[in-house]
Design goal:
The protein is mainly alpha-helical. The protein is built from five helices and no strands. Helix 1 crosses helix 2, helix 1 packs across helix 5 and helix 2 runs antiparallel to helix 5. It is elongated, with a radius of gyration of 18 Å.
């Protein structure tokens, strides 16, 4: 449980758009399409997300077990995509390092 909570919190903090997309698309049917609005986050119809009250990670983890559980489920859905993003970043870091190493040798 603790490791899943930590992963969900990290994803909500580091990849809020991805997590929000998972929440909007996969869990919007809960409580009549408005569960996030009903819990004080924002209206799902507000595509610009102008009424955000606080960062997604803070909102998800300032609620009860229900919000935390949904965050864990959303993180599980996002995990493969996050892994791809992290791998792309890792490849870029290695490429940048190799370029700087090559330029220092010249």
């Amino acid at each position: 449980w603790k490791s899943e909570v930590m992963r969900a919190r990290g994803f909500a903090r580091d990849f809020p758009t991805l997590m929000l997309h998972a929440l909007e698309t996969e869990f919007r049917n809960w409580e009549n399409y408005t569960w996030m609005q009903g819990l004080g986050y924002y209206s799902l119809k507000n595509k610009n997300r102008e009424t955000l009250e606080k960062p997604l990670d803070e909102w998800l983890f300032s609620g009860g077990v229900g919000r935390v559980s949904v965050a864990i489920l959303a993180a599980q859905l996002c995990a493969p995509t996050v892994k791809e993003i992290q791998e792309q970043r890792r490849v870029k870091l290695v490429e940048d390092y190799e370029k700087s190493f090559e330029s220092n040798e010249k």
